[in-house]
Amino acid sequence: MAKKEAGKTITVEQVASANRKPAIQQKTLIGLGLNKIRRTSTLQDTPAVRGMIAKVAHLVRVVE
C-alpha cells in the first residue's frame, strides 16, 4: 500500500453572504465546503481549488 503524500493545504473562510449572487457562485461555495458566513474549510492546494477560490474571491478569504 502506497503512502499518501500530505501535500499542501489551504484554509478558506467565508466572509460574505451568497444571497443575491448567481447560482454558480453559491454552488462553488458548497463545493468548497462553505455555505455560511465565518465557516472555514481546509482543502488540498490544487489548481482546481485555486480556480474555485478565484471565482468567489469576493466572498471568501484565505486564512494564513
Structural commentary:
It contains 2 helices and 3 strands. It starts with 8 loop residues before the first strand and ends with a strand. The chain is globular and about 35 Å long. With 64 residues, the protein is an alpha+beta fold. It has one domain: Ribosomal Protein L30, Chain: A (2-Layer Sandwich). A 3-stranded antiparallel β-sheet has the order 2-1-3, with no helix packed on it.
Cross-sheet strand order for the largest sheet: 2-1-3
The mean pLDDT is: 93
Name given to the CATH architecture: 2-Layer Sandwich
Strand pairing plus helix content: what structural class?
alpha+beta
Number of helices: 2
Stated plainly, the CATH topology is called: Ribosomal Protein L30, Chain: A
Task: List the defining traits of the structure above.
single chain, 64 residues, alpha+beta, Ribosomal Protein L30, Chain: A, 3-stranded antiparallel sheet, globular
Topology:
Elements: E1 9-14, H1 23-31, E2 40-44, H2 47-55, E3 60-63
